[in-house]
Write a structure and sequence with these properties.
Blueprint lengths: L5 H6 L4 H12 L7 E2 L10 E3 L9 E6 L4 H14 L6 E5 L5 H15 L3 E4 L1 H8 L5 H8 L10 E2 H9 L13 H11 L8 E5 L6 H10 L3 E5 L19 E5 L9 H8 L6 E7 L4 H8 L9 E2 L5 H10 L5 H11 L3 H14 L4 H17 L4 H14 L10 H5 L13 H13 L3 E2 L4 E2 L4 H9 L10 H12 L7 H29 L2 H13 L7 H14 L6 H12 L14 H21 L8 H14 L5 E2 L2 E2 L5 H5 L8 H24 L7 H4 L4 H11 L7 E7 L8 E7 L4 H14 L14 H8 L1 H11 L11 H20 L6 H12 L8 H6 L3 H7 L2 H9 L9 H18 L2 H10 L8 H15 L3 H10 L5 H11 L1 H10 L4 H9 L5 H16 L6 H11 L7 H14 L5 H12 L7 H16 L11 H14 L1 H13 L6 H8 L3 H16 L8 H15 L3 H11 L3 H11 L6 H13 L3 H12 L8 H16 L4 H30 L4
Parallel strand pairs: 3-4, 4-5, 7-10, 7-11, 8-9, 9-10
Antiparallel strand pairs: 1-2, 2-3, 6-8, 12-13, 14-15, 16-17
Helix pairs in contact: 2-6, 8-9, 12-13, 13-14, 16-18, 16-19, 19-21, 21-22, 21-23, 22-23, 23-25, 24-26, 25-26, 26-28, 26-30, 28-30, 28-31, 31-34, 32-35, 33-34, 34-37, 35-38, 39-41, 40-41, 41-43, 43-44, 45-47, 46-47, 46-48, 47-49, 48-49, 48-50, 49-50, 49-51, 50-52, 51-52, 51-53, 52-54, 54-55, 54-56, ...
């Protein structure tokens, strides 16, 4: 029923909540922060005004529909008093009252209750509701008949009306100053701009407000409301006596714009300018409908606000909490309306979580769908797009075709692509879709729309199983694929499925649809075939990371399957002839990275099995890829740092409880895995892992527990999304802090007595264990990580120091059972380093248990002489001198056998003082040996610390026997290296040694000839023989030795030639033969060698010494279809230009005489690329290009290929115009354009990259030929596009908004 007046409606009102809402709208004019209480509970308030984050209210609101209103008033005053409140109050009622009666009640409230009171009766309320400002309230809340609308309204009234329903409409504008100035300049009376200005932007970006406020700052402004027609009948409302601006809001939604063309054609309206606000993609259609397409200039485009601007909007509401600000910035995505709305919801509810955000987004989607003719139909397409995440190409094509894939999976979804295209355009018009390509806006609303479609009884429903089948087919996983075809497409398919599974899983979680979650899990697991290789496993685990939000058990399920199918084979190598072991380890690392990503998205508190899963994966991998070394866990086990870290700094007890639960789970895993392997693992494979695997996994996982500091990593700030904030703090002063550290130490103590750990190959683990006290003490003295100037709190430092002492006692209790080298490492740790260093006696006097045990250890005393602790003090040189003398003396006191046993106990990776002392001891042992053969036999059997010095010392006393032994063992590369190491001290033996080793390297008896070649080649770097002699030997090794040795030989050739010593050209030509062999031998791995830069040095030295021979070799290489390695190009550029000119001329000559049958397109491309790489800016290169530019079409094609990347050369500016004028195929012209405009390098300074390219193109614009000018224009446009794309990428990285 519609009422004629507000008074009649109020008299008939029976809904007290409606009266509350009416009262709120009326009183908010004076009290803008007034809000209603909830419908439940009796707080003695219907509404209140309270400052943010304060307890006391400033104003109370009571409403009454009772006929005896004084009784209700007395009741409310008493409740007010009972709650201890004296705040002023409003009493609003729908009953009449005399002024005398109201005055009496005001006095009573003040006298009896101490409350200042104002009373709004029926008459006052009706008067307010009949005003222009509040008439809409009467119509919306009370059912008052709407007035006949005017076609136009004033700017003030229109903005005021919007401010009542649109959040933030009355707030200060943020981030629009530049746009406002641009629009103001276009609208100024003196401006010669076009009569019509279009302001374009997505819904909620603020275009209406900016257009109106800017317009009325210039001239009188009238507004055609959103959706209202602007017809000829409206002319009577348009004034002619002064400049006027007419704003047509949401012009694309107007039913008719027929008055626009008539106004533009009528001279009476010449002083009227029009501003049209439109959504993206609607500009051209709207202008055409208005007949204004010839009267408009470039649009004023509103882009998303930057993060700081959205943040200012949030803080303007009085909200300072950073977590909330970042969440709303992400939600808003640069849209101020969403930011204002989220803030209003938070302030109204007193909180803001995902439930609030999803409700906000749900209402936003529903509101925009309601503006369309058939909301239900449009929702079906919205659901489809939300699931696909993207439809169509950048040109806006094929969007409907992509959506049609989901026909049958989304209820009511049409199957006709053309129809779907139209619906997508409608969704774009409504502000729910961005184009092109089509993507959901706002991004977070996609999961909300899908969650609604997964809710039982939804208007539009999603069949999860059908949707997954169609998504799989759309991604390339079509039904009926063979296992090999499935394997070939799986990685690309899962990457395409990643975002789709991610949004679907989020929707399943939010809707609570367990059937959908189960379907997703089944789908993901079903992608793994029984014989899946590591590459396929990595792809599926990556996809599982997206699905984990729906089913947190995916990690455990995948781990169980992995154990049953272990060992998993490697995928087919894509790197050519690569080390199979290195490739397998690479793939294991990749798999662990994906499992780490999945684990990071799994909460171990709600899914306890996740802990054992991560540890089991690490345990499985450990056999091929040890997971612990240098005290740093691998990527997978870094998960425990994340799990044990804080989520915030507010609840220390909750943090310790969570860490305790995780530590308990680790302890249970150790017990289980010590007893038996994972269920389903092949027993033969399980046998490959011993206690050392459990130890490595345990040590890696426990690293977060061997400290009392934690790290909180937060990504992004309100200002920037691409920042990483890392803050550290000590664990709280709670009993759990000490208890958990002790519990972690108790877990690793049994490893000290584990027999497997005492084997030589596992001593590194024991060394790590005995260094734990040092690790704890260093942490105590170092202070907070990242801020070593800030000491740890006293409780944290005490916990660490006491734990270190307790664990040192446990090490000392097992002292004699530990290997000698491990005992030495324990002492080294106990003595400390640098300024904290002490000696054994001092440490023992201070009560250090390890030092006390070490003082009575004679064997250790001897070892500490030979291999002193690495204490890194400032007196290193003095320590070396003293210790050397002591070590040499000790060598004379021990028998040869005792001395060698002592060397056996030394750590092979000795450094610090021991780097000088141990070789001195070993040399003294060799010099004092009476019988060389036992020593030589020991050296030959296996590596020994100091063996090079031992052999050298032995050779001083037993020269003939040692060199005879060297000759007998020349085929052993390790022993060859030892012999070469002492060759400088025996120059008379060097020539014979080199001949012997060369024979071994080029013969057939040596087991590792390439390793011997490499040893000899490296010896020539510092060999005292002449350069020609060394080059002769290197040429022999390089041409007759193993293929695999060629890179090392070339590296050595470069070192010898770099000295600039005079060399016979024939010797250099012989070295060029080595290069030629390397380039023509498939098995060298030369072009893929890790030390390609060093090899390039040798290549360049050959080129410098023999340009023509080098050009001959290089041309032969390229003519075989291979390309010049990039590092060679960099080194060639450093050559003297005269040398490069000689190489270029010789290269071109060799090219020109090559048979035509050898010059296919691929070879031609490689020749042109190499020609420019070696010859750019040389006279021979420039001359040849000019000749080609004036030649036949084939020569011009060659010139285009050769010059296209040389835009920085002056020759480019000469040759390109000649080529364009002479005539190029479209492909050749595009190639030159690409070379100039394609920016593929990594850079940070955009201007430094783009500016010189623009300058090169700008020079062509002055050319008299139109073809050259057109080419220059196109090049500049592409450079501008590249710059724009890069800036957009930077902006997206900084804002974090979705693309």
């Amino acid at each position: 029923m519609l009422y004629e007046t507000a008074k009649i409606a109020l008299e008939q009102l029976t809904d007290d909540r409606a009266l509350e809402r009416v009262a709120l709208r009326v009183l908010r004019k004076c009290y803008p922060h007034l809000r209603l209480t909830s419908a439940t509970g009796d707080t003695g308030l219907d509404g209140y005004d309270r400052p943010l984050f304060e307890d006391e209210i400033e104003v109370a609101l009571w409403v009454s529909l009772q006929a005896t209103w004084t009784t209700k008033l007395t009741t409310e005053l008493k409740k007010h008093q009972e709650h201890g409140r004296t705040a002023p109050a409003f009493f609003v009622m729908n009953r009449p009252a005399t002024e005398i009666k109201k005055e009496q009640e005001r006095d009573r409230a003040k006298t009896d209750f101490g409350v200042s009171l104002e009373i709004f009766d029926l008459a006052e309320l009706a008067t307010q509701l009949e005003s222009d400002d509040l008439r809409w309230v009467a119509e919306a809340e009370l059912g008052v008949r709407p007035r006949r609308p005017r076609a136009l309204t004033t700017a003030e009234v229109y903005l005021d009306r919007l401010s009542r329903t649109v959040p933030g409409m009355a707030a200060e504008l943020r981030g629009t100053a530049e746009i406002g100035n641009q629009l103001r300049a276009r609208l100024a009376p003196e401006s010669s701009e076009d009569r019509v200005v279009v302001v374009e932007g997505p819904g909620g970006c603020g275009k209406t407000r900016i257009a109106i406020e800017t317009a009325r700052s210039v001239a009188t402004t009238l507004v055609v409301p959103s959706g209202a027609p602007f017809t000829l009948d409206s002319f009577t409302e348009v004034g002619l006596d002064a400049p006027l601006i007419l704003v047509i809001d949401d012009a694309h939604r107007s039913q008719s714009l027929s008055a626009v063309a008539a106004m533009l054609a009528d001279q009476r309206f010449d002083r009227v300018r029009l501003v049209l606000t439109v959504r993206p993609g609607q500009r051209d259609r709207t202008l055409y409908a208005a007949g204004a397409e010839n009267h408009v200039g470039a649009p004023v485009v509103l882009l998303p606000l930057d993060r700081p601007e959205i943040d200012t909007i949030i803080t303007d509401h009085g909200i300072q909490r950073e977590e909330f600000r970042k969440a709303v910035i992400t939600l808003a995505g640069g849209n101020p309306l969403l930011a204002h709305t989220a803030c209003q919801v938070a302030l109204s509810n007193g909180k803001f979580d995902w439930g609030d955000a999803s409700d906000l987004l749900r209402e936003l989607v529903a509101d925009r769908l309601r503006a369309l003719d058939d909301p239900g139909l449009h929702r079906t397409v919205a659901v489809g797009l939300a699931l696909l995440t993207k439809a169509g190409d950048p040109a806006g094509h094929h969007g409907g075709q992509d959506i049609a894939v989901l026909h049958g999976a989304v209820s009511g979804l049409p199957s006709e692509p053309d129809r779907l295209d139209r619906i997508l355009d409608n969704l774009a018009d409504a502000g729910l879709v961005d184009t092109p390509p089509y993507t959901f806006r706002p991004d977070l609303a996609a999961a909300v729309v899908l969650a609604d479609a997964l809710t039982p009884g939804a208007m539009v429903r999603l069949d999860t199983n059908a949707a997954l089948r169609r998504l799989a087919t759309h991604s390339g996983l079509a039904p009926g694929l063979t296992p090999q075809e499935h394997a070939d497409v799986l990685e690309a398919a899962t990457r395409r499925l990643d975002p789709q599974i991610g949004v679907l899983a989020a929707a399943a979680r939010d809707s609570g649809n367990q059937a959908a979650a189960s379907a997703i899990t089944t789908f993901v697991l079903g992608l793994l075939s029984e014989d899946a290789h590591l590459g396929q496993w990595a792809s599926v685990v990556r996809l599982a990371s997206q699905a984990a939000s729906a089913d947190p058990t995916l990690l455990a399920q995948l781990t169980e399957r992995l154990a049953r199918r272990w060992p998993v084979p490697a995928s087919e190598q894509l790197w050519g002839d690569t080390d199979a072991v290195a490739y397998y380890r690479f793939e294991l690392d990749r798999l662990c990275e994906e499992f780490a990503r999945l684990a990071a998205r799994t909460n171990p508190e709600t899914t306890p099995a996740a802990v054992a899963s991560v540890l089991d994966i690490a345990w499985l991998v450990d056999a091929a890829r040890p997971v612990f070394g240098s005290h740093q866990p691998d990527t997978l086990l870094r998960t425990f740092h994340t799990w044990t870290g804080p989520r915030n700094w507010h609840n220390g007890q909750a943090l310790m409880d969570r860490r305790g639960a995780l530590l308990g789970a680790i302890s249970r895993w150790v017990r289980d895995r010590t007893d038996e392997p994972p269920l389903g693992l092949d027993p033969a494979d399980a046998a490959k892992r011993g206690p050392e695997s459990v130890a490595r996994v345990l040590l890696a996982a426990l690293q977060p527990y061997l400290t009392v500091t934690v790290e909180l990593v937060q990504r992004g700030t309100p200002e920037q999304a691409n920042t990483l904030n890392i803050s550290t703090a000590a664990l709280p002063d709670l009993p759990e802090t000490r208890y958990q550290l002790d519990q972690a130490l108790d877990l690793i103590e049994p490893l000290l007595a584990e027999p497997a750990m005492h084997r030589p190959e596992h001593l590194n683990l024991l060394n790590a264990l005995v260094a734990v006290p040092e690790q704890l003490r260093q942490a105590a003295g170092r202070g907070l990580p990242g801020n070593h100037h800030q000491k740890l709190p006293a409780h944290a430092e005490k916990v660490l120091v006491e734990a270190a002492s307790r664990f040192a006692e446990k090490i000392a209790a097992r002292w004699t059972d530990l290997p000698l080298s491990v005992r030495r490492r324990a002492v080294e740790a106990a003595l400390g380093t640098g300024t904290r260093r002490t000696d054994l006696a001092g440490a023992a006097a201070n009560g250090e248990p390890i030092a006390v045990a070490a003082l009575s250890d004679l064997g250790l005393a001897h070892l500490l002489v030979v291999q002193p602790p690495n204490t890194f003090t400032a007196t290193w040189a003095e320590d070396v001198a003293t210790q050397k003398s002591t070590a040499i003396t000790l060598a004379g006191q021990l028998t040869t056998a005792q001395a060698i046993d002592l060397l056996e106990a030394a750590d092979p990776s000795f450094f610090g003082t021991a780097h000088e002392v141990l070789p001195a001891f070993a040399a003294a042992v060799g010099e004092s040996a009476t019988d060389a053969d036992p020593v030589l036999d020991r050296i030959a059997s296996r590596p020994l610390p100091g063996d090079a010095a031992l052999l050298a010392g032995l050779a001083t006393q037993h020269t003939d026997r040692v060199w005879q032994w060297v000759s007998e063992h020349a085929g052993d590369p390790r022993l060859a290296g030892l012999a070469l190491g002492m060759a400088d001290d025996h120059p008379e033996q060097e020539a014979q040694l080199l001949r012997t080793l060369a024979d071994a390297a080029t013969g057939t008896e040596a087991t590792e000839p390439a390793a011997i070649c490499t040893q000899v080649a490296r010896h020539t770097w510092h060999c005292t023989r002449s350069a020609e002699d060394r080059l002769e030997r290197l040429a022999l090794l390089g041409t007759q030795g193993p293929d695999q040795a060629v890179p090392a030989v070339l590296e050595a050739i470069g070192t010898v030639l770099h000295s600039n010593a005079p060399v016979d050209p024939a010797a250099v030509d012989a070295c060029a033969a080595v290069l030629e062999r390397g380039l023509t031998t498939d098995t060298t791995g030369l072009l893929n060698n890790d030390s390609l830069g060093l090899i390039s040095h040798g290549v360049i030295q050959i080129a410098r010494r023999s340009p023509e021979r080098f050009a001959q070799v290089l041309a032969g290489h390229v003519l075989s279809g291979r390309r010049l390695p990039a590092p060679w190009t960099e080194h060639l550029e450093s050559l003297d230009i005269a040398v490069r000119n000689d190489i270029t001329a010789a290269f071109e000559q060799r090219w020109s005489t090559a048979p035509a049958t050898a010059l296919n397109d691929s070879v031609q491309d490689a020749l042109c690329e190499t020609f420019t790489a070696i010859g750019k800016d040389t006279e021979a290169w420039s001359r040849t290009l000019v000749e080609w530019a004036g030649g036949p079409p084939s020569a011009r094609r060659r010139a285009a290929k050769a010059v296209h990347l040389a835009w920085s050369s002056s020759t480019w500016g000469q040759v390109v115009p000649e080529l364009l004028v002479a005539g190029l195929t479209p492909e050749s012209q595009e190639l030159i354009l690409h070379g100039l405009a394609a920016v593929n390098a990594v850079f940070t300074d955009l201007d430094a990259v783009i500016r010189p390219r623009r300058e090169a193109a700008e020079k062509l614009k002055s050319h008299p030929d139109a073809l050259v000018q057109a080419f220059a224009t196109t090049a500049l446009e592409r450079l501008d596009s590249s710059a724009s794309a890069f800036r957009g990428m930077q902006q997206r990285s900084r804002t974090g908004y979705p693309t």
